[in-house]
Amino acid sequence: MAVTIKDIAKAARVDKAAVSLTLRNRPEAQRLRPETRDRILKTARELGYQRNLLASATRTGVVNTIAVIGRFRKDDVPPCTNRMLAGILTTCTQYGYNIKVYSDMNLDEVFAEIGGSRIFHVISLLVKREERQKTADFCKRGGIRLVHVYEDASDGFPSVNTDNFASAREVVNHLASIGHRRIALLCAPHRYLYIRERHDGYLQGLRDAGLQADSRLIDCSEDSGQGVAAMLALPEKERPSAVFALADSLAVKAEYLAIRLGFRVPEDLSVFGFGNTEICGAALVPVSSVEESPYDCGELAVKIILDKPADVRRREDGRYLIAPRLVHRDSTAPRMHGCGQQRNNK
Questions:
Q1: What structural domains does the chain harbor?
Q2: What burial class does residue 187 get, using C-beta atoms within 10 Å of its C-beta: 0-12 exposed, 13-18 middle, 19+ buried?
Q3: 286: burial class by Cβ within 10 Å (0-12, 13-18, 19+)?
Q4: Cα 273 to Cα 140: distance, rounded to the nearest angstrom
Q5: pLDDT tens digits for 292-304?
Q6: Phi and psi of 176, rounded to 5°?
Q7: Contact at 8 Å (CB) between 43 and 12?
Q8: pTM (2 decimals)?
Q9: CA dihedral defined by 49, 55, 59, 61, rounded to 10 degrees?
Q10: What is the spatial distance between Cα 294 and Cα 170, in angstroms, rounded to a whole number?
């Protein structure tokens, strides 16, 4: 026999109204004590309660589904997407919501389906400005709640991200604290906010350490390989002893090229990446990196869009920024003055 709200109320020692509000995730449920809501949800799970979402949506006009729009293409999926979706899905489940994932291949079709499905919560993983603006315009017209993951807040809709500026600054501060005075940056063309923020954080880290930026040690081109080669071809006292790369892929590439040119990692060149992706552990010398916290970003985005308590505060500019965490591996070491940076000419 199907478990009813009355069964749950009796087992959880609460009234039926409290159970109904909690299971339907109604705003009024927030008036209940957190331990009461947790007890109701735990009891419902233990009794095997299954809510009829379709019937509920038909009756109330409310669909407990969050639409997630991102780059989900066969050969083009960002490396952190799986972990971010895991954070979104786990948190949605916790609050009685489903997710529906949409690719950015045809946004007009996506918007039509979201509107037709009466979905009123959207999490956007899009980074292109025109796509983000198009999504914001659609949500504003339809009275839909929207949270951007990545980049900045816009049109009154908040965003969630790792604190890119603070992360880059902390990497440079760390490298300077272990003796590195010539710290290079492998960047990229400044097409997106996160690239500019990591670049600016690097410069601020140099200023914090009392170091001057050297244009020869900064590469923002499309071809980081040539940039690394040019830096390592400098005279010994002018070449970098450490490299901070905008992304793990650039860091691993820098490490590979340095080793091919006869430099030792980390004795001659320390390497630090960004993202803490699987490639870090697969490198010849495991690469130190910044944890980009995709799971936490996904979890936080759901809490924001559902008005749930969150540990990260909203800034005045509408952004929620997760604090940096450095992951140290074998590719970084203190600078040994008078040693290292000797080219292997064998």
A1: 5-51 (1.10.260), 65-161+295-322 (3.40.50.2300), 164-291 (3.40.50.2300)
A2: buried
A3: middle
A4: 37
A5: 999 999 999 999 9
A6: -65, -35
A7: yes
A8: 0.79
A9: 100
A10: 19
